[in-house]
Amino acid sequence: MVTVRAPATSANLGSGFDVFGVALDRPADVVHVERADRTTIEVTGVGSQYIPTDPNRNVVGAVAEALDAPAHIRIDKGVRPSSGLGSSAASSAAAALALNELYDRGLSREELVPIAAEGEAVVSGEAHADNVAPALLGGFTVATDEGVTTIDADIPLVACLPEIVVSTRDARRVVPKQASIDDLVHTVGRAATLSVGMCRRDPRLVGAGMDDRVVTPARAELITGYDEVRSAALAAGADGVTVSGAGPSILAVCGSNDRTRVAAAMLEAFDDVDVSAQAYKTRVGSGAEIFEF
């Protein structure tokens, strides 16, 4: 048996749609794999009742097929499905790394990124790497057609997850198909600012670089209380706030001394609009970890 822990992630970060991602130090999925003649899947943990165990419909089934590595796969979910925290990516990344070890395929983590992304295609219809890259590699990642660039950034974060469900497919449907040149210039500038902030480990620059006029406003409409929660987080000292991935989680960047205050403000703002939520005081963390054979 091989066991792998893979972290939750936050993709897009506002200005980096389908490109930027960060690994979070919590929560996480744990995946256990054992050799078998055919792939079977068992799922426990948060939201497990909503996750199919048919290998043709589960992200880890797609990964096992891509690696030609049949196994009995047990997923202990710590990342809620449809949370905007890379739930499917955590399972895909953990399974890819575990099966690579189990069958001694000898692939690097970078080479496993497109394989893990095949799992993402089961959920969203597209094999994009913005979540699986940080889940495998850790840190802040920039995923393009040419590959993945990784920066080891230690940035304090708060991820606030409301009891709202936003499917990845629905969140992709609302993304505008066109953007003005002014919005394009604005996005490029903010993405560059965010990247510099990650390199400098500067929460202020990272927060400023999250601002986005194209994708985030469209997705925010799917999240009850988004404007109120964003305003509350900024008033409590957050350096920047945006939708985490497809939502409904909301991600706030803040100095290490502000996380408790920011988390409390976000929870209170959700409560004011009659939405239950939980907050993770987290930070940019490491990628998937093999911790049991």
UniProtKB/TrEMBL annotation:
Cell inner membrane recorded as keyword: no
Tree of life domain: Archaea
Every GHMP kinase N-terminal domain range: 61-139
Enzyme class at the top of the EC tree: transferase
Pfam families noted in UniProt: GHMP_kinases_C (PF08544), GHMP_kinases_N (PF00288)
Gene Ontology biological process: threonine biosynthetic process
SUPFAM superfamilies from the UniProt entry: GHMP Kinase, C-terminal domain, Ribosomal protein S5 domain 2-like
Pathway connected to this protein: Amino-acid biosynthesis; L-threonine biosynthesis; L-threonine from L-aspartate: step 4/5
Entry's EC annotation: 2.7.1.39
Keyword Cytoplasm among record annotations: yes
Catalyzed reactions per annotation: L-homoserine + ATP = O-phospho-L-homoserine + ADP + H(+)
Residues reported in the UniProt entry to bind ATP: R80, P81, S82, S83, G84, L85, G86, S87, S88, A89, A90
Compartments, record wording: Cytoplasm
Keywords of the record: Amino-acid biosynthesis, ATP-binding, Cytoplasm, Kinase, Nucleotide-binding, Threonine biosynthesis, Transferase
Entry's Gene Ontology cellular component terms: cytoplasm
Domain GHMP kinase C-terminal: 197-271
NCBIfam families named among the record's database cross-references: PRK01212.1-4, thrB
PANTHER family: HOMOSERINE KINASE, HOMOSERINE/4-DIPHOSPHOCYTIDYL-2-C-METHYL-D-ERYTHRITOL KINASE
Family: Belongs to the GHMP kinase family. Homoserine kinase subfamily.
Protein name according to UniProt: Homoserine kinase
Gene designation per UniProt: thrB
